Amino acid sequence: MNPNLALARRYYAAFLSYMGRHEQALAEIKRARDLDPLSLNVNVTLGHILCNARQYDQAIEALKDTLELDPSYSGAYWFLGYCYPAKRMYAEAITAFEEAIKLGQDSPGTQIRLGAAFAKAGNRTRAQAILKQLQASKLYVSPLELGILYAALGERDQAFASLEKAYGAHDLQFQFLGVSPEWDPLRSDPRFQDLLRRVGLAN
């Protein structure tokens, strides 16, 4: 109906990314950026899709370019925190998530990923303190996302128990499970492959 609607191309690109169709996703998001080059959401989605495609250097560059458009855009810091751990840049991930929190992105999902970055950086005390805080929180905490923190702490069985709880609850975060680098440490486990099959994301 409107081939020049950048918003529609952005959401379609995200869908393609979650389905593992990375080349098509990148083509769509780049078209969206051509249509609306100053859109912060479009530019940050480009970084997200590049990260899902395991093009980490390009993803980080795209997210830093987004911050040049608006240095106070919390979403760009959040996705930098999402990308940095894949390159073992854990200190940078911590800094990025802390900046995102300062700018208003203080959700349980952000705290989970901050805790995971602390765990991978070797600061288990901070990571476990965040885990304890989340377990006591009255806010909704996605059991699937909580599995990210358990996995970072090396608690694989607890991570899979949390994933099974998420499966029973039809957790919305499952849409990212097939492509997110956050789950790469568990992908070789038969339990993970079985879960992907059950939710319809297995190749």
Short summary of the structure?
This protein has 203 residues and is an all-alpha fold. It is 67% helix and 0% strand.
What does this structure look like?
With 203 residues, the protein is mainly α. The protein has 2 domains: 1-104, Tetratricopeptide repeat domain (Serine Threonine Protein Phosphatase 5, Tetratricopeptide repeat), CATH 1.25.40.10; 107-203, no CATH class. Helices cover 67% and strands 0% of the residues. Helix 2 packs antiparallel against helix 3 (40-52), helix 3 (40-52) runs antiparallel to helix 4 (56-69) and helix 7 (108-120) runs parallel beside helix 9. The longest helix is centred in the first third of the chain and has 14 residues, at 22-35. It is globular and about 45 Å long. The model has no long low-confidence stretch (mean pLDDT 96).
CATH class of the largest domain: Mainly Alpha
Radius of gyration, whole Å:
17 Å
Order of helices and strands: HHHHHHHHHHH
Largest sheet: none
User: How many individual β-strands?
Assistant: 0
CATH fold field value of the largest domain: Serine Threonine Protein Phosphatase 5, Tetratricopeptide repeat
The average pLDDT score comes to 96
In the predicted model, the low-confidence regions spanning at least 5 consecutive residues are none
Shape: globular
| Structural class designation | mainly alpha
